[in-house]
Structure formats: C-alpha cells, structure tokens
Amino acid sequence: MGGTGRRDDRAPMTSPKLPLLQAGHGGPLGPSPFASTAPSIVIALLSLVAAGVWVVADAALPGGRVLAVHLLTLGALTTLILTFSEHFTRTLTRTPGDRHVAWPIVTSVSIVLLLVGLATRLLPVLAVGATATLAVVGAARWRLRRLRSRAVGARFLWVVRSYEQAHVLFLVAGVLGGALGLGLVTGPWFAAVRLAHLHANILGWAGLTLLATLVFFGPTMVRTRIEPGADADAARLLPAGALALGLAVLLLAASGMSGPWGVVSRVAAGGALAVVATIATAVLLPVLRAALRAAPSGPRPAVLGTCGWFIAVL
C-alpha cells in the first residue's frame, strides 16, 4: 500500500542468499605452517629409502650396515631434528620467518660427505664431512639460543633450552663418532666409546628433542589440554635429565678403563641412566594420561605409542 510504509502482503517473499560453506570462507587458503620444512622432509624420506636398500643389500653395497644406520640417524633423523627444532623454536618464541633456504642444502652436503667417507673409508673425506656436520649443528644451536634470548615472557622457553641441550649432546656424539671413524680409538676403548656415542645420539640428540616436543605438542595433537603444572614440572626436570644423560655418556666412555675403574664407571653410568629414565617417565606420564582421556583421533595412537615406547626403552 503506497505511502503508508506498510509491506504489501501480496508481494512475494524472498530469502537472503546464503554464502557457500567453503574452506577459508571462499577465500584462498594460506600456505601451510610447515611448508618451509618440505625440502627436509623429502631428504629424510629419500634417506629412509636408501637405508632400507642398504639393510637389504647388507655387505653387497659399500659401507654395509654401518652406512645403513647412519643413513637413518644422519640422513633422516638429523635432517628432521635440525629443521623442526628451529621451526618449533620460532613458533614458541613468536619469531616470524623461517630459517634460510641455504641451511638444508649445507646440512645435506655435509652429511653426504660424511656418509661417503664412511662408505669409501676415505679418511680426509670423512674428516671434512664430520667437521662440517658438527659446524652445522653448532651453528643451529647458536641460532636457537639467540632466538630464546630475544624472547620475552614466552611460556615454553624451556622447550627451546632442551633443544639446545640436545644439540650439545649431538656435538659430543659427533666428536666420539669422529674418533671412532678415524681410527683414533682402539682396543677395549672402542666398545666403550661406541656405546657412549650411541647413547648420546639416541637418548640425547633424538630422545631429548622428542621428549620436550611431546610435552608441549602431544596434547595439542590429540586435541586436549596439557595437565595443569605438567609444563612447569618438565621445565624443572628436563635440565636435570640432560645433565644426568651427559654424565652417563662420559661414564660409558670411561668404562674402557681396565680393572675396577672400568666396572665402577659402568655401574655409575647405569645409575645415571636410571635417573634419566625416572625423569623421562615423570615428564611423559601427564602426556600419556592426557592422550588416554582424549577422544579418538588419528594422531592419538601415535602419541600413546610414542610415550609408551619411550618409557619402555628407557
């Protein structure tokens, strides 16, 4: 009806056009937060395939099982640890940007030189590769420390500190491994130094990194909250665990001494490792309980399995 401001009841009613429900509300999706890690993931996968080939071929290929183990620990694990340690550190310290694109290249070249030296027994190549790899890890540790020192008030800085300690243990393992590879250690000392090298790599470099990451990222993966106080406990306990592990590595290396001193060193190393196991269990149990309470999801079995495996191995 004209001029009255009233709606004509005879006019057809139209409903507003609803927007399509699309990811990003129809806009372009941004890049994945893990996009910068893709080259390192590809390198790690190629290293895993190569390690499998060397395991199957055994003595038919140069380097045999020794090279297969180092394809796994250096080519795959070290590449991933270096990449994700810095990635998570930048996230936790709220530092924008990614590590320079040259670092994966430099890392891969140094590791390839080391592996070629192992396979061919060319000591100069092995020495150059080992030195370059130690320099890369040392530089990575310096970057982590610099990022942590510039951050103010971040809750999970203790995770970055644990990453730094893991890098230090890799440097110790690298020096021990270099001495083994270059033939500088012989006799009963060879087994002792090799054992120390393995523990520094597996429990220190890989284990400490994984342990710290699980505490802050594990509950997030299973879509639940971390237990109250669990991060504070981890921040207090993990430095002591890293110190105990470093002591265990030195004692294992010293167990090459003959006579009672060798026995004392082995027993003391066992005690130090028991401290590491106790601390790791105390740190992981809250993560395990949080994952058990969480609703079923894809990552949940992985988090449960990793926590259980870690505790059992230690």
Task: Characterise the protein shown here.
The protein folds into two domains: 39-153; 155-314, no CATH class. Helix content is 73%, strand content 0%. It contains nine helices and no strands.
What Rg is obtained from the alpha carbons, in whole angstroms? 26 Å
Structural class: mainly alpha
- The stretches of 5 or more residues where confidence is low (pLDDT under 50) are 18-30
What is the helix/strand order?
HHHHHHHHH
User: How many extended strands?
Assistant: 0
Percent strand equals under 5%
Shape: globular
| Amino-to-carboxy terminus distance | 84 Å
Total individual domains? 2
What share of residues is helical? over 70%
Number of helices: 9
Overall average residue pLDDT = 86
The biggest sheet, with number of strands, parallel, antiparallel or mixed sense and barrel status, is: none
Topology:
Layout: H1 38-57, H2 64-92, H3 102-120, H4 123-150, H5 157-181, H6 188-221, H7 230-254, H8 260-293, H9 300-313
Helix pairs in contact: 1-2, 2-3, 2-4, 2-5, 2-6, 3-4, 4-5, 5-6, 5-7, 6-7, 6-8, 6-9, 7-8, 8-9
Quickly list its features:
314 residues, 2 domains, 9 helices, mainly alpha
Q: Can I get a quick summary?
A:
The chain is mainly α. Helices cover 73% and strands 0% of the residues.
